[in-house]
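Hey, can you fold this one?
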Amino acid sequence: MPLLPEGHPEKIFREDGLRLDGRKPDDLRDLRIEIGVLKNADGSAMVCHGKNRIIAGAYGPREVHPRHLAQSDTGILQVQYRMSTFSVGERKSPVPGRREKEISMVIQHALEPVLFLEQYPNSTIDIFIQVMTADGGTRCASITAAALALADMGIPMRDLVTGVAVGKVDNKPILDLADYEDKWEEGAADMPVAVMMNEKKITLLQLDGQVGIDEYERMLDLAIKGAEGVYEAQKEALRKKYTSEIVGGR
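Sure. Predicted structure:
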């Protein structure tokens, strides 16, 4: 079976009202998380969300390079998001594109509110994200992975950040769009969201497409519901790693 669907389907919903992959409109895709997957990183995580395969490594706090980027009153967060040349159906150029640079900045801004950067003047925390396989919602899954890499690093954080996308397809709100749903053009909209779950604070909200106020509110409620499911998976993955380390250390 190919990693990504060939072409795009003629419809999004089956006759029974379910999506083509059997999900209800408010269902997440399968989600699997592993913590500590990179031996040489200070913290790392792999998120397998649907057919997305994303690895994040976190390093620091450490000296800033180049030095002119250092700030004497605070630390900085630097994020590098990259898609592998084989991550999509058609080979991607290995040169970082405008979209990758934009998503790197978006992820950085989504994560900064949970970090106590003021405690690390003249220092940087670096996050490197590699998308191995892409199938829609990679920026949201990357935020989920990057937040876990930071937590695995052991740096103080106000909360985890959880990423999830919600959209409108055929004028119906749906959660966690796969690639073929994200590219659907009839009555479509896409809204990536990142949330600090404890306080329900939104650190990222983008909207591509047109929606009414009522539609927007329904989509945002659906995104928060989906984020709760991802958040539980994040916490369970962290518990699993550190529980096994405690047991193994006895």
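DSSP finds four helices and ten strands in the chain. Let me know if you want another pass with a different chain boundary.
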